[in-house]
Structure formats: structure tokens, C-alpha cells
Amino acid sequence: MTPHFLRRVAALSRKEVLHIIRDVRVVYMALGMPVLLLLLFGYAVSFDLDRLPIALIDYDQTPASRDYAAALSSSGAFAITETPPDTSQMEAAFRRNALKVGVVIPQGFERSLARGETAEVQVLLDGADGTTTSAALGDIVGVTQARTTALLRDGAVALSLPIDARVLMLFNPAMKSVLFVVPGLIALILAIMAVMLTALTVAREWERGSMEQLFSTPVRRAEVVLGKLLPYLGVGMLQVLIVTTLGAELFDVPVRGSLVLLFACAALFLVGMLGQGLFISVITRNQQVATQVGLITSMLPVILLSGFLFPVENMPLVLRIIAAILPATHFIVVLRGILLRGNGMDVLWPQMLAMAAFAVVIVGLSTLRFRRRLA
Mind listing the pLDDT tens digit for each residue in 266-275? Predict the structure, then answer.
């Protein structure tokens, strides 16, 4: 290595450092993204339950049954927020996706313990949400075992198993993971494809200069936006048909609700995602940057914040607010509701309204951004 060689390497390195410092996007990707990912994974990825709302029906109304209910509350994993009068109302709450866990203490609970018999407790779990259900099942078994140990230690019973939790999985009796994973995968696939389709194709037109030529014609901005979105909406609806059919044929995912409602909700979701991709293309005007931003803003939120893999209830308030804004959070609820629970519009209208609101806002922002940047 000669001195001239080292000077040339140093000069080129200095030039590249200046490029990095002057490009804010590179600095953000290099320094900001690791911090963002650490915060997201650190706060969002949690399998522990914290005060999960549950419903409790106590048909026994005795000191023993109240002690068991108190053990559930004091565990920290559950909070008894509902006490429906019967199981029919509890099951209706499950179908509305308003409930994940229900506990029923039958009549004669204390009498069975006093006779030295096993006292059974029925536990109802939402099998459509496998992540929350698995964590809740483990915590309920732990609470039951702890209560059993306490009874044995106090000499109140002589059985080795005085309390037995009988579990009933609703909507997914066999607890097949594929039944609650596939709806999330459908949302993930559609989100990535929709964002990338519009982000890349429109960014390519910005780079080639054809977009400026298009706006020099009498065509209006709103007409350009709709003209760009509608073809890809048709492609997206075809993707919905393909992934739904494959999910049913290959993975035995049932379709218990209305297919018309499913495609209507999918259209709302796709418009929002296509609008997001269009907004990214307007902001970046560069295919490489649009690819990076599109993947980050479509894939990571669906995986981490939508309830696909990790319960939203466990996240901090800020992340729960972000999750409530994301259309994927509501689309996954819609998919699980229609495919597994057989829900209709009377149950899913809040999710449809949220997706429609996001679509209107993001498409409107894209249109306004076109106007401002080209003015």
C-alpha cells in the first residue's frame, strides 16, 4: 500500500461520507431504523397477558367459587369485566369479537369440594385468535393449579386434583394454528402487494418524467389518482379470490360468513393500501426508496401491530392507538369474523367504517400532495 493509494482511498471515503451526511434518508435508514425496530419489537412482541378482560358466570355463588374468581383477578393476567346472566349471552359476545375468554363456575362447585369430589370449571376460549387464546389457556391452567395447591396445603380437600378446568375452544375446536394464521397471512400478502404495486409503478413514472407530462394535460389530479388506483384494485380483488380459494382448498379454512361481504371489506382494505403506496410514491419519487419505505410500512405494521401474531391488548397505549389506525388490524378481525365466526355486517360495521375512513384520508392526502408538489 503506497501513500498515493491510501490518499485516494481516504479521498473517496471522505466523498462518500459527505454523500451520506447530505442524504437525510440514508442517515435515517442507518441510524433511525435500528432504534425504531428495537422499540417496536421490544414493546409490541409480548406473549404475556396483562389484565385481559374476561367474562365470569358464577352459578354457585359460594365462598369457594368467589375464592376461585378472586384468584383469577389477583393473578394479574385477567380482569373480570363482564358477568353475563347465562352462557348464551357469553357466546354472543364471543361472536361479536368482544370477548376472548369466558369462565363458568357451575352450581355445586363448593359442594363437590366438600364431598371430596373434583369440582369442574368450564373455560370458553376464542379459537379464532390463537395467540391470545394460547396465553390465556396457560394462565388459567396456572391459576387453577395454584388454587389447587392452596386447597391441598390448607387441608381443605384430600384429592390430588380438587379443581379441574374443562376447556372448550369456540370456532376452532381442534385448535389448528392454520385457521387463525391464514387470515393474517391473507392480510399480510394483500397489504404488501397493494402498497408495492402503486408505490413502484408510480415512482417509476416520476423518475422517467412521464408523470409531469401527464399533469401538463387538462386531466385533473383526482382523475389521475383514480385512474391509477382502479386497475390495481381489480388486480387486488383477483388476488383476494386466489388466496381465499387456496386457503379453503389447501388449508381447509372454512368460509362461514358471506363471500359478498368478504369481498366488499377486501375492497375497502385494498383502496387504503393502494392509496398508501400512492402516497409513498408521491413523497419519495424514487423506486429504491419507495421499495424500502413500502416494505417497512406495509410488512412490519401487519406483523407486529395488527394482532396477527401478537395480542394488541398487551401493547402500550401509543402502539394500541397506532394499531387502531392501521387498516390491517381491522381487516384481520373481518377475515377471522367472516371465515371462522360467520359474522355479518351487524357485527363488522365498526371495522368497515375504520377501513373506509383510512382509505378516504390516505387517497385524499395523495391527491393533495400531487397538487402541492406540482403547483
Answer: 999 999 999 9
Instruction: Please check whether residue 107 is in contact with residue 60, taking contact to mean a CB–CB distance below 8 angstroms.
Output: yes
Backbone angles phi, psi at 373, to 5 degrees: -75, -25
244 with 366, same domain: the answer is yes
Gap between the Cα atoms of 329 and 306, Å rounded: 4
DSSP H or E run through 170: strand 163-170
Based on the domain organization, do 201 and 259 belong to the same domain?
A: yes
pLDDT tens per residue, range 4-25: 767 777 776 776 677 667 766 6
Q: What is the pTM of this model?
A: 0.82
Residue with cell 402503486: 198
SS3 72: helix
* Contact call for residues 190 and 355 (beta carbons, < 8 A): no
What confidence tens digit (pLDDT) does each residue in 27-85 have?
666 667 677 767 776 776 666 677 888 999 999 999 999 999 999 988 888 889 999 99
The domain boundary, picked from 115, 142, 170, lies at 170
Spatial distance between the Cα atoms of 194 and 154, rounded to a whole number of angstroms: 61
Residue 40 located in a structural domain: no
Q: Give the whole-angstrom CA distance, residue 79 versus residue 239.
A: 41
**Considering the chain, what percentage of its residues have pLDDT values greater than 70?**
87
| Residues shown for the chain | 375
First to last CA, the chain: 54
Residues of the chain with pLDDT > 90, as a percent, come to 34
Give domain status of residue 318, yes or no: yes
How far apart, in whole angstroms, are the C-alpha atoms of residue 35 and residue 303? 18
Domain span at residue 245 reads 177-374
